[in-house]
Amino acid sequence: MEIVYVYVKKRSEFGKQCNFSDRQAELNIDIPPNPELAEQFVERNPVDVGVQCSTSMSEHEANTERFEMETRGINHVEGGWPKDVNPLELEQTIRFRKKVEKDENYINAIMQLGSIMEHCIKQNNAIDIYQEYFDDEDEMEVTEEAPSAKTINVFRDPQEIKRSATHLSWH
Fold first, then answer.
1. pTM of the predicted model as reported, rounded to 2 decimal places
2. Which one-letter DSSP state was computed for residue 84?
3. Which tens digit of pLDDT belongs to each residue from 17-46?
């Protein structure tokens, strides 16, 4: 897929055509310096000023090398065994597993994946603070008062697109 954006401008928007030619320099005006203004001059050092008299327009084109890929499938009933290992023979599979488990790259990969997996598990490990996890706690005293509710705060959605509440947890 080629990504292209073409800038289109009408010829009438170009302005007047420029015709340049070589000729001698001509002096249009000569203004002598004013000594009174020269006394008011204050030198600033250093001075850096960026000046751009025209609008900034640019074009960029990038073509990267194509990445060749193909889709392959595997039958996971028998697992991803190499061609020389028969998955139906228990002895061959055990020998192959032992050989792979001794490989140093396998051990490093398992250690790396273990730390990533632990991080993901800890992210999903949430506790509902209102669920009763221990039944043997002392029961609180039951009061005969009628249940009531009081509005403490109203939370408003700051988004322009209004969203509905999907979960409410109260105690």
1. 0.27
2. T
3. 778 888 898 888 998 889 898 888 888 877
